[in-house]
Amino acid sequence: MRVLIVEDEIGIANFLKQGLEEESFVVDVAYEGGEGLIMALSGEYDILILDWMLPEKSGIEICTEFRKKFKKTPVIFLTAKDTMKETILGLQSGANDYIKKPFHFDELLERIKVQLRPNTEELEGLTLGSIKLNLNTYQVTKNNVEIPLTQKEFSLLEMLIRNKGKVCKRSRIIESVWDIHFDYNTGVIDVYINALRKKLKLSGDENYIQTIRGVGYIAKEL
Q1: Are residues 142 and 174 in the same domain?
Q2: Can you tell me the distance from the alpha carbon of 207 to that of 131, in angstroms, rounded to the nearest whole number?
Q3: Which of 68, 107, 172, 197 lies at a CB distance of 3.0 to 4.6 Å from 202, suitable for a disulfide?
Q4: What gap in Å lies between CA 208 and CA 221, rounded to an integer?
């Protein structure tokens, strides 16, 4: 899961980044509202953690603009503001939750987990055309025939399907699936994509995983 933190207090931002990375999240940080909005609108994040008061653009402005494009991605505010009026304003802007500074990291972590908790439909599995992923048993089937995948192949396919209809950039794939956060030859992704295509027999009318040249891959139902 990929998290965007927009927080101008460097100490808090670094503390949160370290803590969440220890919990296996992929974390990016922006220290100004303008930069944070640009990063948020990339659509590459599973959850946003926004400070209320920021240079350039406030957390409220970021959330309001973000919600025009992304309706379901959870947003949590971190703020020293705690009046009823401000709480209502934050929720009206599209926030899912609201936590007052100072806070305990464990409380924030649990609030993040609640927002990322799979919905009922997802618990039943993810689908891509005739392909089904069972997230409880880690089984993959196509037309009800089980297809054995390695752990990395399963994780790669899961990421693509979770982002169905959106381009997954190579840099994001290598971070999320391989947990690599530095310059690295992403050719390994191509090897695994080719393996998935062969095992799932993806071609012709079932070309569910498509290459976006120079960018990454996209899962699409044709």
Answers
A1: yes
A2: 12
A3: 197
A4: 6
pTM above 0.70, yes or no: no
Q: Which of 99, 116, 133 is the last residue of a domain?
A: 116
Q: Is it the case that residue 47 has pLDDT exceeding 90?
A: yes
122 — pLDDT class (breaks 50, 70, 90): low
Same domain, residue pair 66 and 126: no
List, edge to edge, every strand of the sheet that includes 139-142.
126-128, 131-134, 139-142, 145-146
CATH number of the domain within which 36 lies: 3.40.50.2300
Q: What is the mean pLDDT of residues 57-82?
A: 89
Which range of residues forms the domain containing residue 78? 2-116
Nearest to 16 by CA among 92, 112, 139: 112
Burial of 208 (0-12, 13-18, 19+ CB in 10 A): buried
